[in-house]
Amino acid sequence: MTRSRALKVMQAFAAVAALALGAAAAGPGGWPGSSLYNLESRWTDQDGGSVALDAFAGAPVVVAMGYTTCRDICPAIVADMMWVERHLPPGATSRVRFAFFSFDSEADTPERLKLYAESHGLDPRRWTLLRADDSAARELAAALDVPWRPNDRNGFDHAAVLTLLDGKGEIAFQQRGTQASSDELLGRLKGLIAKGE
Amino acid sequence: MGAAAVFVVAILAVASPAAAAAGAERGGLVTIPPGLYTPFQRVKAANSGETEAQAPEAIAAFAMDRAPVTNAEYLGFVTAHPEWRKSWTKTLFADGRYLGRWPADLDFGHAEAGDRPVTDVSWFAARAYCKTRGLDLPTTAQWEYALADAGRDEARVRARSLEWFSRPNGAGPGAIGGPVNGYGVGNLIGLVWEWTEDFNAYAITAESRDPNGNDSAAVCGGAAAGIADASDYPAFMRASMRASLKANYTADMLGFRCAGGAP
After folding, report:
1. Contact A15/B at CB under 8 A
2. What Gene Ontology molecular-function terms does this entry list (chain A) (predicted)?
3. What Rg do the C-alpha atoms of chain A give, in angstroms?
4. How many domains does chain A have?
5. How many CB atoms within 10 Å of residue B217?
6. By the 8 A CB rule, do B235 and B202 touch?
């Protein structure tokens, strides 16, 4: 057994994994097979309301995951979302939604989410902050391919991922890592709007 | 089946030698005692950004399947839960190769495949299976802790892992069974790689190194820079493999087993 042999095994594995390209077929729920709206988890928003993911259907939505006590990467994620919001084309501002999903099922109560939204000046007409139990958060993070883990500082280490969903809940674009300007995501968003989504 | 019933099975399997012997053939849960586990990966320190070994993590007692879930067992699941049949499953939950060895929705092919680990299942599918038993997938820490077996036979387990990695995997996994470790858990290595609940927890390291760059290079490089014990090459392989996965991926060398809280 050599190291290169083992790496070959791993590369073969990665190649198999890269074949994950199945075509999106509409399922019984009516959503395309790859739609995030096939997830059945229920979330609670900053007003205490119960929300299914497909409540966001019908218009583009910019989605991210984080938690409100996060001092590292989350403020940058929200800042990126706000940058997109500021650059929305006229006429789209009432349609595009921004959704921030928390990993922190314990600390991020609806009250806390509301406080966070208010302190950051997030317009409740466009912004929804949500929390759920650990299992639902893990499932959404998996579907969005957002790696995360609890850390030993009462928080979470996680990747910065902004996801643009189209009106049917399919991933139209993902931005990995925070950026000074989210031009590419904004461009895709404008494209969706131009198509009437 | 409720969690209580599952745990009764676990207690019987551990308490009675006869039940344990039967369990070795059929699978079933065994109880793993509490202890400490030191995660394999180094992490970035909070302030300095230097990597440091992680502190040992306390593992509570838990129950874990003695063996990976078999094709026969999985057939029972998809029979009862049509949404997980291969022709029904949505691409969000499993890619186009899901149950790729199965000729049809309710047919795993040759009879001898019944005792072999089911493969080509996604994280979502594996997790759904475990939830119908009132269980979860093991966390990575639980899985690695079970393999570590309180340090028993460490060198031999590593040697067997390396031997397994070097073997071509064309024919697919063999049947479950054979020896179990000190905890009574078998087939952790040698047949299939296994999903864990938090398989992607350590992909972050790679991503923070190279958010927009080449995936596999970032994963391998990241993991290599972050290992606590560079001599434990099999652990590096497992970590790299997990970090390369996405939740709807399936592969013909990737299966799973279930775990749950302590009885």
Report:
1. no
2. metal ion binding
3. 18
4. 1
5. 12
6. no
Contact B116, B145 (CB under 8 A): no
Q: Which of B91, B123, B198 sits opposite A33 (nearest CB)?
A: B91
Give per-residue pLDDT as tens, A10-68: 555 444 444 333 333 444 468 999 999 999 999 999 999 999 999 999 999 999 999 99
Which residues 6+ apart lie within 8 Å of A109 measured at CB?
A131
Q: Say if domain B3-261 classifies as CATH 3.90.1580.
A: yes
First to last CA, chain B: 15
pLDDT at B26: 45
With contacts defined as CB-CB under 8 Å, which chain B residues touch A39? 92
What is the span of the domain harbouring residue A149? 31-194
Q: Residue A168 is part of a domain; what is its CATH number?
A: 3.40.30.10
Residue among B124, B162, B197 minimizing CB distance to A1: B162
Q: Which chain B positions have a beta carbon within 8 Å of A74's beta carbon?
A: none
Q: Which one has a higher pLDDT value, B123 or B25?
A: B123
Using CB atoms, pick whichever of A6, A25, A142 lies closest to residue B165.
A6
- Residue B113, pLDDT > 70, answer yes
Is residue A13 assigned to a domain?
no
Q: Does this model's pTM top 0.80?
A: yes
B33-44 average pLDDT score = 83
| Interchain pair B165, A5: CB under 8 A | yes
In this prediction, the residues of chain A whose per-residue pLDDT falls under 50 are 1-3, 13-28
Q: What ipTM is given for this predicted complex? A: 0.82
SS3 for A77-145 is: HHHHHHHHHHCCCCCCCCCCEEEEEECCCCCCCHHHHHHHHHHCCCCCCCEEEEECCHHHHHHHHHHHC
What's chain A's average pLDDT?
A: 86
A11 in a structural domain: no
Residue A14 lies in a domain: no
Contact B90 A148 (CB under 8 A): no
**Inter-chain CB proximity A145 and B252 less than 8 Å:** no
| Distance between A91 CA and the closest CA of chain B, angstroms | 32
B143-191 pLDDT tens trace: 999 999 999 999 999 999 999 988 876 678 899 999 999 999 999 999 9
Residues of A in contact with B127 (CB under 8 A): 139
In a domain, A185, yes or no: yes
